[in-house]
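JOB MANIFEST
job_type = single_chain_structure
chain_count = 1
residues = 145
[input]
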Amino acid sequence: MGAAHSRYGIPDVDLPGTDGGTVNPAHFAGHEIVVLFCPADREAAERDVADYAEHLEDFRDSDAWILGICDEEQSPCAHPAMAFTMARDDQRLAWDAFQDLLNPRQRTPREDGAVFLFDRGGGLRRSWVGSGHASEVAHAVSERR
């Protein structure tokens, strides 16, 4: 179950969805997509998920999709108000594939989390290290409307 980059540039990796089924980030091509890797700290992960849920209308208005990805230890990193897709990356296949998109200076430990914003064509527009970027990401998405 290795990851390969799709023809759109978004890593093509099948992940188990937190509510069952399989989720693949590359299948979101054609929409702007925000890929949120939740930080290892459970409270920070829950705060991130809640912050993105709070900005959900901003993302929807821009036809942007959100995919949250967490590790097994964080599996309950869901928020009651969450209304976007969540997947698990227990073997860190997605994490490794997404880190390959960055130059080595930009790479970060998985525990810190990260956010990746892809344009409709699947090109990486921007990335953020760590958590707490929901407002910045929502603003970056809305700039393209």
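[summary]
Residues 8-110+123-142 form a domain with the Glutaredoxin fold (CATH 3.40.30.10).
Helices lie at 42-54, 56-61, 93-99, 134-142.
exit_status = 0
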